[in-house]
Structure formats: structure tokens, C-alpha cells
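B., you asked whether I could sanity-check this one before it goes into the benchmark set. Here's the sequence:
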Amino acid sequence: MPDVLYETSGPVATITLNRPEARNAYSDAMVDELLNAIDRADADDAVRSVVITGAGSVFSAGGDLKAMRDRTGMFEGDPAELRKQYRRGLQQLPRRFDQFEKPVVAAINGAAIGAGLDLALMADLRIASEEARFGSTFARVGLVPGDGGAYLLTRVVGFARALDLVLTARVIDADEALAMDLVTTLTPPDRVLETARERALQIAELPPKAVQAAKACLYRSVDNDLETALQLTAALQATVQHTDEHDDAVQSMLERLGKA
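And here's what the prediction gave me:
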């Protein structure tokens, strides 16, 4: 069986981490297949939004502890080799998600720990089970959040909360995750994937060029000064304002208001 499953339903693609026997911990194959799945969704114009989830009862446990112990796979080699492997392997994921223009909804069906939490943070929205648990637990195994987590966690929950989570390596429940905006919405465990797909479909029903441009506006503005953000949004606005989907959406809105 592949380590990552890919399926589409209408305009929504669902990517599923598929190593439930290993708590959906990363393997080299999983990283490659996840990158390929994102590329596949990117290349398919019929796909307007993406859901990412985990098979079984866990979203992702992050790094594979057995591979860490045995220094195999992505944990094999001397420091120089390991650095190269991180740059060419696991760190390609945050880079690829950062460049992916279509919205991504994480359906966090269970624990999201270590690099598994970081993967959830690469999504734009996070729908979580009320029973999910979250932890940036790298320090517990003598590591650092080296796959983009230090940056991503700070951007999502703020510097002080990120420091708390990383330095204590504590695991928090879903309610605390919601309170600190780590997740967007909580649902009963049996409703996580359904709710995430509903949210992804809600996004997919909007004009796709505008949605992708709006996502770019937010991400490229958050780390910039106001003037840079305004220059960017002016250019993007001028672009989407000359699309057929904008004209159609305005006409449809006027018809609904009885002002056509």
C-alpha cells in the first residue's frame, strides 16, 4: 500500500497519510508521495481546495522513533549528510506548501505530535477532533523543530505561546489548542473529515482565482510592512478584476439583489 492516498470528489482533493500501523509517522516514501500529491492537486485545474488527514486514529506522530533509534532512512548519516537530507527531504514540505496556491484544510482526526503538528500547521485551516492532542515535543527526544515548525508555530499562535510549547514540550488537549488559535474548529471525532470536506467545498464554490489571490495577499502581507502589502494587493486586485469569474460573480450578486 502507498504511504499516501489521493482521491478527488468534485473540486476537493483528499490526501491521506497512510501508515496507521506507525501512527502515520514520516517515512522517506511518505515525504516523496506527499510532495507528489500536492503537485498532482496543483496541476489539476478541477481541484480547487485540498483536505489532508491521517488514516486510523492518529493524524501524525511525526518522526519515526524506530528509524531515529536505528539511524536509518532520513536519520542516517553524519551531520553534514543529515543536513543535506533535511534540506532535500523533509524541509521540502514547508517550502512546497508555502508555494501551493490552493487552500488546504487539515482534518486532524487524532494526535498531531512533533513533525505531525508541523504538517498540520502547513495547512491554512485546521479542523480537529475534540479528542485530538497536540505537541511540539522535539525536546523530549533531544531534537529541535527542524522542518519549519519553529517558524510556522510562531506565525500561528504567537511567539510567547510558541516558546511555551517548544520549551516545555508539553502535549495540550483540543480545547487549549482552540483557545490559542492553533486550530480553527473542533468537532466530534466522527465528524472531523466530513466537516473539513464541507469547509473545503465551501471554499471551492468561490471564484478560484480570487481565493488563491486572497490567500497570497494574507501570507505575503503578514511578514511585510503596510506599504509593501498595499502594493502587492493592488497588483493582485487589478489582476483578478479583469477575469471572467469576477464579472460573472458581480452579475450573479446583482441578480440575487434584484438590481440586475
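One thing to flag: Residues 28-43 form the longest helix (16 residues). Otherwise nothing jumped out at me.
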